[in-house]
Structure formats: structure tokens, C-alpha cells
Amino acid sequence: xxxxxxxxxxxxxxxxxxxxxxxxxxxxxxxxxxxxxxxxxxxxxxxxxxxxxxxxxxxxxxxxxxxxxxxxxxxxxxxxxxxxxxxxxxxxx
Length: 93
Known about the structure:
By secondary structure, this protein is mainly α. The chain contains two helices and no strands. It has helices at about 10, 15-75. It is rod-shaped, with a radius of gyration of 38 Å.
């Protein structure tokens, strides 16, 4: 049976080895973050373009449909005039 012991690589890790391990981890994280930032920076233009397309086209279409329905409903719901209106001129003294 084997006694419980640490693996040889972890048992004999020197302080300079530990420092270089931490340096490697931090460099890898910095590279990943810069790549993520670059991808996000490139996608920002696409997101802004989609927002503009949504605002200009979709909101314009919804507004046009809303105005058309409003005019149709006001035409349907407004009663026709019974007789032409006569203007009454009053003289104020």
C-alpha cells in the first residue's frame, strides 16, 4: 500500500516556480480578456446597426399602421353631418 503523500511536482515546487506559474496564469487571462474585448468591440458596430434598423424600419412601420388604423376608426366612428352648419354672426357692442 502506498502512503498518502503529495505528488512530486507539488511537493517540490519552489517559490520561483510558483511565481512563474502565477505569471503564466495572469498572462493567459490577460490575453483572453483582450481577445474578448476585441470581439466585443467588433460586434458593437453590428449591435448599433441592428438598433438603428429596428428603430427606423420597425418603429416606422408600427407608426404607419397605427396612424392608418386611427384614421380608419375615426372615419367609421364619426357620424356624418346632418346639415351644413350655418355661421351666426353676432355683433358685439
